[in-house]
Amino acid sequence: MEREYYKTKESVEEYIRLAKDVNGRQLIEKLKQVLAPKSTLLEIGSGPGSDWKILNKSFQVMGSDNSIEFLNHLRAENPNGKFLELDAITLQTDKKFDGIYSNKVLHHLNDHELVNSIKKQYEVLNTQGVICHSFWKGEGSEIFKGLFVKYHTEKSLKEVFGQHFKILSIESYAEFEQGDSLLLLGIKK
Ligand SMILES: C[S@@+](CC[C@H](N)C(=O)[O-])C[C@H]1O[C@@H](n2cnc3c(N)ncnc32)[C@H](O)[C@@H]1O
């Protein structure tokens, strides 16, 4: 059951329904302050594609997900869009990007997987490449709907991303309630 939630048609339809009024517009505004218009951008874990649509207005965006069900939905909704089947941990692509964005995706990675993902993010980014990722703020981890969820603090993010990226900012913001989320912006060292 673990990690199956985003893989079945039923759960993907449920997620799309539940998340239909939610998007990362305010996070993307922060990204736009550090990434020039028309830059190439990889979105990890595009899911329903709400953020992909906003990103697509400013950047040359490549959407991605490791769920075939989400990819089917993304491709059907956006026939002219570019999407890759990509796992956040391995990021197996020979393409290079000026930026990488994810909204509430990397919290599904355990500590070891996150370290591997960050190394790969460093590799697939061009010089001066930037990252913009959101997380749930808190301590510890849990299994929610059969999925692993790891909570992060400013300190834990600084430690793990600081190996390969200069941290530009880590800000807390409200997804559902004040201070429940963190947005990290960084630039390749
Ligand atoms: C909480 S949803 C967020 C979706 C979207 N970014 C949003 O803001 O609505 C998590 C997404 O990450 C994807 N995901 C989870 N683990 C992943 C992994 N290891 N590699 C790539 N995508 C993953 C899921 O399929 C799902 O689309």
From TrEMBL:
Q: Which GO terms describe its biological process?
A: methylation
Going by the UniProt record, its keywords in alphabetical order are: Methyltransferase, Transferase
The transmembrane residues are: none
- What InterPro entries does its record include? Methyltransf_25 (IPR041698), SAM-dependent_MTases_sf (IPR029063)
Q: Which residues are in the Methyltransferase domain?
A: 42-129
Q: Name one Pfam family in it.
A: Methyltransf_25
Q: Name one GO molecular function term.
A: methyltransferase activity
Name of the protein described by the UniProt record: Class I SAM-dependent methyltransferase
Species the sequence originates in: Ulvibacterium marinum
